Amino acid sequence: MFADWGVVHLGTYLVGLFLIIILPGPNSLFVLTTSAGRGIAAGYQAACGVFLGDTILIVLTAAGASTLLQQYPVLFLALKSAGAAYLFYVGAQILYALWRPIEATDAPTIAIERKGFFQRALLLSLLNPKAILFLLSFFVQFVDPSKGHPWLAFMVLGGFLQLFSFTYLSTLIFGGATLAASFRRFRRLGIVANISVALLFIGFALRMLFESQ
C-alpha cells in the first residue's frame, strides 16, 4: 500500500529510524529530566511539545524549507545560534537551581522549573534547523517521486517517525519516574544527576554552535 504512495524500502527505513530515535539528544534528555524532576504528567507535557515541534519540522521539510536554509546560510547560522543559546540557558538554569535555597518541601530530584514544560520542549525542537536538513536527507532516500505523491510519502515517513518517537519518549518518562524515586532516597545521586544533565545541555549547545555548517 505505502509503495503506491511513493514510499520505498520501508523496512530499511524503519530499522534506520529506530537507531536514530534511540540516540541521545536534547529533546529526549529534556523529556527524561522533566519526568524525573516533576512527574509523569509533566513528562508527557514535554513529550507533546517535542511531538508538535517535530511535526512542524516535518511539514516544513516537505514544503521545501531545507532548500531555503541551504540558500541563505546567514538564516541557518542565526537559527542555529539561537538554538545553541537556548540549550545553554537550559543547562545554566539547572546549575543555578542547585545554588538556590531549597525549600523544605522540595524533593532532591532533577532541577526542572515547575511550569512551561510544553513550551520549552517545543522551543528545543524548533530551534534546531539542522533537523530540517537531516529530515530531508534521510527521507529523500525512501521516496519515489515517480509515483507522483512525494508530499504524501513524506507524511507517511513522518508518521512512522512520530510513532517511534512517542513510544520511546513514553519509555523515558516512566524511566524518569523510577529515577526520581532513587534521587529521593539518595540526595547525592540527585545532585550528580543535576550536574550531569546541565553539562550535557551545555555540551549540546557548544557542539551546535561550533560544528561546521
Annotation keywords:
213 residues
Structure in words:
The protein has one domain (26-210). The radius of gyration is 19 Å and the shape is globular. It contains nine helices and no strands. Residues 101-109 have low confidence and may be disordered. With 213 residues, the protein is an all-alpha fold.
What is the topological layout?
Elements: H1 10-21, H2 26-38, H3 40-63, H4 65-71, H5 73-99, H6 117-126, H7 129-139, H8 150-185, H9 187-210
Helix pairs in contact: 1-8, 2-3, 2-6, 2-8, 3-6, 3-7, 3-8, 4-7, 5-9, 8-9
- Oligomer type: single chain
Q: Portion of residues in helices?
A: over 70%
* Largest sheet entry: none
Order of helices and strands: HHHHHHHHH
Euclidean distance between termini CA atoms = 38 Å
Total domain count:
1
Rg is 19 Å
Structural class: mainly alpha
Strand content: under 5%
What's the gist of this structure?
The protein is mainly α and 213 residues long. Helices cover 77% and strands 0% of the residues.
